[in-house]
Every structure is written in structure tokens, then in C-alpha cells.
Amino acid sequence: MRLILLGAPGAGKGTQANYIREKFGIPQISTGDMLRAAVKAGTPLGLEAKAIMDAGGLVRDDIIIGLVKERISQDDCGNGFLFDGFPRTIPQAEAMIAAGVDIDYVVEIDVPDAAIVERMAGRRVHLASGRTYHVAFNPPKAAGKDDVTGEELVQRDDDKEETVKKRLSVYHEQTAVLVGFYGKLAESGSAKAPKYVKIDGTRAVETVRDEVLKALGA
């Protein structure tokens, strides 16, 4: 099972990725993890990427694709892999096809921006324990206080409404175009085209999970 998971930040991709990973016994691969591993291992591509990052530059797509090919040739990818946060752009998607990296499925977790803002901006955290609450969906017993200790809950900077909206804006500018790209590819009927699956991510986590696994033939 070789697949790409698409969706805006806060759509619930991470949760669904865990279910997919466990069901099919495949690793979840992110470009960040891949870059760090290659740099740590001191591979030629890793060293080249490190030099670019140390200079404050963006790692070129050809290096990223090279790292992807290296990573998916490793033993733990024998049953497949799940790309999370990659590809981010159409040039990366096209480069992956040109490099012969075949994908079986592209799964989009679709959640409207307004629902994502409500989900993320309502989160509150007890930093010492990691316990999380939501002002609307899972409120603490006393407003703004941890249920166990009574200590103050905080809103992480990443969860602030303006930050969430900024991240969504970047997603729509750079990555949302991949939805159309892979949708058209799936419709083309090409033997190499992945199947495209769009899942409504606004429902209960378990409902989304069951529909994703069913769509993947599990």
C-alpha cells in the first residue's frame, strides 16, 4: 500500500495516518523526518541538503526526490509507505512521477476552513500533563482550569485563530492545487495513475477511519 495523504492542517491527517500505518504495517514518511535522518546518516544527499539548510536556503526538489527514492528503498518500506506532507507542490508531484515513484492511492481528508478554525482555536492545554480540552467539544469542568490540578489552561500559539488562518492560507496557495492535480490524474485512466479518494473529515474520528480503511480495501 503506497499512498499520499492530503488535507489542510488540522483536518485530522495525523490521526488517520496512525490508523493506516497500523492496519497495513507501513511507515509514515515526512520530508522533515527524511531530511533529518539523511543529514544524521551523512549520506551524500544528506550532506548536500545540510549545506543548503545551513545557508538558510530551501532544499531543491531534485534533492528531495533523491531522498524519497533512497528512503522508500529501505527494508521497512517493503509493504509500502504513507507520505505525509509530501509532495507539497505540483513540481514535486511531477518529479515523483518522472522518477518512477508509483502511488496506489491519494486520500484527501476534506474539512472546510471554518470547521478547522473552530477545531483548533478552541483547543486548550494543561502544559505540565499534556491534557487537552476544547471550549466547545470537550470543555473542562471549570472554565479555563485543568480538571485534575485546577491549574490554568493555555492556548498554544499554533492554535491561535490568526495563526491557524495563516497556515490555511499557505496550504491553499501551495498544496491545495494537488487535489486538482491528482484528481485529474486519476480520471485520466492511465495505468500508473493512483486512485483518488475524498473523505468527509468533519465526522467522528472512528467514522472517518472506517471509511478510509474501506476505501483502501481493508
Automatic annotation (TrEMBL):
Protein localization: Cytoplasm
Pathway: Purine metabolism; AMP biosynthesis via salvage pathway; AMP from ADP: step 1/1
Region (LID): 122-159
Residue segments, region NMP: 30-59
Domain called Adenylate kinase active site lid: residue spans: 123-158
Keywords, sorted A to Z: ATP-binding, Cytoplasm, Kinase, Nucleotide biosynthesis, Nucleotide-binding, Transferase
Domain notes: Consists of three domains, a large central CORE domain and two small peripheral domains, NMPbind and LID, which undergo movements during catalysis. The LID domain closes over the site of phosphoryl transfer upon ATP binding. Assembling and dissambling the active center during each catalytic cycle provides an effective means to prevent ATP hydrolysis.
Subunit structure: Monomer.
HAMAP family, per database record: Adenylate_kinase_Adk
UniProt protein name: Adenylate kinase
Upper classification of the organism: Bacteria, Pseudomonadati, Pseudomonadota, Betaproteobacteria, Neisseriales
